[in-house]
Give the backbone structure.
Amino acid sequence: MSATPYLQACEVRKRFGSFTALDGVSLDIAEGELVCLLGPSGCGKTTLLRCIAGLERQDAGVLRMGGRDISHLPPQARDYGILFQSYALFPNLSVEQNIAYGLTGASRDEARQRVAQMLELVGLTGSEKKYPGQLSGGQQQRVALARALAPSPSLLLLDEPMSALDARVREHLCTELRQLQKRLGITTLMVTHNQDEAMLMADRIAVMNHGRVEQYDTPEAIYRRPATPFVASFVGQGNWLPFEGRDGRHARVGDLRLCLPEQAGEGASGQLFCRPEAIAVEPGQDDDNRFRAQVREITFLGNRCRVSFELDALPGHPLLAELDPAQMPRLGGPDIWVALPSRSLQVFA
Amino acid sequence: MERTLALPQSARRRPGDLGDRLFIQGGKCLFLAFLAVAVVLPLAAIFWRGFSGEAGQGGGLVAARELLASANFHWLLGNSLKVSLSVAALVVPVAYLFAYALTRTLIPAKSLWRGISLLPLLAPSMLPGIALIYLFGNQGLLRGWLPDNIYGFWGIVLGEAIYTFPHALMILISALSLADGRLFDAASSMGAGPWKAFCSITWPATRQAVFAAFCLVFTLTITDFGVPVVVGGDYQVLALEAYKAVVGQQQFGRGALIGMVLLLPALLSFGVDAWLRRRQGDAMSGRAQVHQPKPSRLRDAGFLALVLLVCAVLLGVLGMAVYSSLVKFWPYNLSLSLRHYAFEETAGGGWLAYRNSLTLATCTALFGGALIFTGAWLMEKTHGQRALNQVLRLLSFVPMAVPGLVLGLGYVFFFNLPANPLHGLYGSMTLLVVCSIAHFLTTAQMTASTALRQLDGEFEAAALSLKMPLYRHYLKVTVPICLPALLDIVRYLFVSAMTTVSAAIFLYSPDSVLAAVAVLNMDDAGNVGGAAAMSTLILLTSAAVSLLLAGASRGLLRRSQAWRQTAPGH
């Protein structure tokens, strides 16, 4: 990862009537990096992508690409390739003609060579004469990718590229796309609402909500150290415990006293957050925050089990824990011990 | 980036969007200018004419009050309303049952019945009138069937009924062909019989179309003068009066006043229809399943009888017109000859008129098709200039609410002004083409928009990202995909321009006389045989061109089958 950002968005704003799509978004993307814009629908991620592509005009803010100010350039004058959610392959043109669509400055031979090269790159050699309608969804996606990459752009934009595909082929294509991106070293910005895709592919993830970037960090940091309650609840699963009153490193949740991690801040009230896999069931004696609990429901999920339980001292507030199915026999009856280790608790004041 | 994957710099196109800006903004401005000159200004001219009290023109507020209070006007208005309401009351129920038979029953040979029922669209409105004269006139074939003379109220009603039937039918077919099979399954699972299902599902979903059909038939009838001029006799109506005021007496102001009166029902029904449509919203959900009618002998037999009867009447009337054009000397010498087709020997325009009509129809179809389709694409697919797009969309709906007669009057008033720099166009073929395009713009544009909306919304964005100029993208991708719809528009414009008289009657000069106008003139001069022959010629030409274009469209679909089978990405 190089230090100078290749793509830069500074304080970009965009409104549609009374709806604020982008509320001062800033983002730096390094050369060769793959960044995911992750967020619920309506959070502004697609709008940001379309502003960068020049398909929407931002109301305020600056966009820079390779040091060049592109804020007011028409799409044709920006240097990018884009893969749309629907792929937008032209149905009346063959695969070959689709890929060569952006190559009209090249001679016929150059174009043919380039098409062959691109088809080899996406593993579809021999499909030149087919029409998009004769290809599967995954093959169409590859053709669209080949078409976007054919003019050799320095930036690749991906707009929900996997959403039109079956869940089964999705993960496979995500991995493939990521490998291709790494091989080409092309700077890439991808929009998705699917956190698994984002985790699988991104160097860094920008989690967006209400037209703002809530956190911009590596997938691991986003998961382990969510910066805001929104990020914590949007990425992965978690338990929330409202607390009121503090004394030193302890917080009061209902009738419970929980030991907080070090550097837990000073807030006198707020929310405690804990991932389900961090909760220890039938823990050893040395864990802190041990409590009695009642199992309500156990769901088998294949590689893990989800246990829903209520703390005896906090009835009516179900919590989730996830554990290895191999640990299940240790759960004798409905009465169990659980621990909410202080080092895994996060405090949002 | 890997070296081998970099494209040589020379091969990259120089970015620039000047051509596109010219194409998009220039195109929109051109379309706007067209709508202004061909629709808005002529309409404004009607109001200006109607309210300016120039001496000897019969306009102005005083004249308006006099006209509206006169007994003659009341008589004309009463006649027009009576005729129009009768026609609508007669046509809409029959068309509804006919459309129901074609969409919701299992009668055989549906496409044949549908083809026959649409035949009147291919002929000018005078043709049913002429046929009625030969059938029920004083020397008619079936004179004994009617107690009274055909000339008058019943002649107009029957002629207009045949002329307006296919128009009502098309609206009702498109409404009835949308049916969600799940609703009928639910109804029958709850024990509802066919009548109950009709009342609770079919009727609520189609009553708005019934209203629209009623309004359309009413408006077409009240503004048509082709039928009244042929079989009206002494029974006068408003549309005829407007025609006579302008063409016969040069009373432009009086013509404008009547034109405004005739514009009222059209505007009113258009407004109410738009309001109802908004209130009803979109009744069909995307997950609707096709409704498959269940077999029922009795129902199918009944509907087949009705369909056969209607088709027999239509074929009988149209066939009578064709037959009469071939008879040597009605009713004394019934041997067949092509005597009536020797137009060079008769007054009224003859072959010049037919050639002019071909020119008009061809130019309207080609220029109109290109203009309207490109305009629709610019409105649907290019972003920016939102306000301009709104204005264009609004203006392109205006022609639908303006009857041809009123539009034609507007053209007279606007282009016949000596002060108008476009005055030179008056009476020329160019103006006839402009008027025809404007007159039929809305329907053609709606067809184009529907086809364009089915395309992926990102096609243009994809083209831009690939640095393809949009005007080239339009020609390389959009037009080829939409070619069937485009051919449909061309066919519609051709046939409409070939058959119309309503607007053209005010705009032709001796050099640009049209076939449909020649029908009127020949009939006026007592040459009914010649009028029948010219009508037949129009009918055959329209039919031939329709068949030709349908064949071209089918061949095109077969050739492009490779990529039309499935749409990508959906």
